[in-house]
Design a protein that fits this description.
It contains four helices and no strands. It is mostly helical and about 170 residues long. Its main location: membrane.
């Protein structure tokens, strides 16, 4: 911006001291510092806004390039798939296309009995296994579970052994 060296700064400070005076110089220096800080922030904001707009323009151009490339690839795939489908239909009907010498689109030598649609392509219907252990499915009464011997509480093996261990006879005389 400006080419200010130490000698020029000292000269400006000496002139300011003489012109403004020693009493008002600190207040003026603070005011000039805050104004310079605001000016620098404003310049930096303008620079960043210009950079953002330039990057946005570049991104828009890049987006247009990618979209045009995607359209080109899509059109190429569509034409190739249409050609492939046409050749496949021609071979399925028993006629060969006279204008193409493509050996890539040859019929399968192992598919001798192809009739063009005899295979069924119906997918099986999905059934959910219905295994949600959080949802209570039955309302079997506790007395029936106890009578049938169904466990209703979880116990470790050691706790089960301790529960059914025969009690020692007491030696109380």
């Amino acid at each position: 911006m400006f080419d200010l060296g130490i000698s020029k700064m000292a000269l400006i400070g000496a002139v300011a001291l003489i012109v403004i005076g020693p009493e008002k110089l600190p207040r003026v220096a603070r005011t000039v510092g805050t104004l310079l800080g605001k000016a620098q922030r404003y310049v930096n904001d303008v620079k960043s806004e210009v950079n953002r707009s330039m990057e946005l323009d570049e991104l828009r151009k890049m987006k247009e390039n990618v979209e045009s490339a995607a359209r080109d690839v899509e059109s190429t795939i569509r034409t190739n798939s249409a050609d492939f489908e046409k050749n496949l239909n021609d071979q399925a009907n028993g006629t060969a296309s006279s204008g193409s010498d493509d050996s890539f689109y040859t019929a399968d030598p192992y598919a001798e009995s192809y009739d063009g649609g005899s295979a069924s392509t119906v997918a099986p219907v999905y059934h959910h296994p219905r295994k949600n252990w959080r949802v209570k499915r039955g309302a079997t009464p506790q007395w029936y579970k106890h009578q049938a011997g169904v466990r209703t509480h979880v116990q470790s093996g050691a706790a089960r052994v301790a529960r059914f261990r025969p009690k020692k006879p007491s030696s109380g005389l």
